[in-house]
Design a protein that fits this description.
14% strand, alpha/beta, 14 strands
Length: 446
Amino acid sequence: MTDGPVDQNSATDTPTPRRKPKPERTRIGGREMNPSTLMMGHGYDPALSEGSLKAPIFLTSTFAFESAAAGKRHFEGITGQREGGAEGLVYSRFNGPNQEILEDRLAVWDGAEDALTFSSGMTAICILMLAYVSSGDVIVHSGPLYAASEGFVSKVLSKFNVTYVDFPAGASREELDAVLAKAKDQARENGGKVAMIYLESPGNPTNALVDVEAVKEARDGAGLSDGESPCPIAIDNTFLGPLWQRPLDHGADIVAYSLTKYVGGHSDLVAGSIAGAKQWMDPVRALRNTMGGIVDPNTAWMLLRSLETVELRMQRAGENAVTVCKFLAGHPKVEGLGYLGMIDDPRQQDIYERHCLGAGSTFSVFLKGGEAECFRFLDSLVIAKLAVSLGGTETLASHPASMTHLSVPHARRQRLRITDNLVRISIGIEDADDLVADFEQALEKV
């Protein structure tokens, strides 16, 4: 935090505070209510909106003060000229009713103290990283990452003298210790610090899992959790969240999402979020206030709608994935599956059993052959659509090596098993037997 008065319009260290919500009831009859129940009303008071059962869409760029004195008091609190801070809605680059209700509900799913929403998943990731790095710093990250995430670290942050050290998703504690020791030496040589450990688990598109507990132990053992600038562990939980994995319970400090995927779930919006303790959110909120990038009110409203059914949609998609993968596993033209319900590596199975609550509905299929065979398969699908993204109500299929991960150098793709014979599939909520029939007829063309 800065010592003197802060102009909220240029602050990068002091976040503009959100309005103070009414006290929330999260227990009934001594029982803690489940997230699926809280999605129907948490964070919203109908009395504040003419009794509307559902939150209206608040399409406004600015918010009115009840008096000039109230406006002065608010800005005195923001700038530090009066103790106690400030609460309320001022300007839609900072916050708004739809966004704040959405953030309240997203925090519920991960058991987080606070959450922030953004105009896309990559906006969330980029602003998160920028909030924590300075010139000379090092980011440690798992691999594989979504190509845009990896590219932001290696190609954009590198322009500002931020370097990285990466490690394979399934790394052991001993390997992690060595990686962090290397990162500390690298940071020392560059006059910086190890600023963040960034994970993606399961990794895109291989479904490789990271041992978050081992990462936390290695981080703490390396002394990176102490001092004035502790090193947070952030994780992209898009493939399994918010239903099938709760990384904050296993040692992560910050959880990130592309809300476009399962949370949005209808392939009709783009948004992102992060969640965690307030101490981790505040620097990011401050930078978001300056840079912009908050999700717009209409998209926030659509996400509130989607959160009411996210559990039902993900459960159905997960059940469908079980049926489809059982069929694919026995097909003679399938070489292997990257599906968390059928893990053949003991180390990965151990991580899955400790960290995951379900196998998800996005997986990779390794066909016998290469790009030509994959293309024939993809071009023959009828129900499943050939498209990037995942987590929607419809089934999607894509070829990462020639599409989403084409920018990743070929040698690195091979090391990460993003091979020419890999097809990524995201199962939707169609009839499972119809999906099996579609995959069966497409495989006949291979």
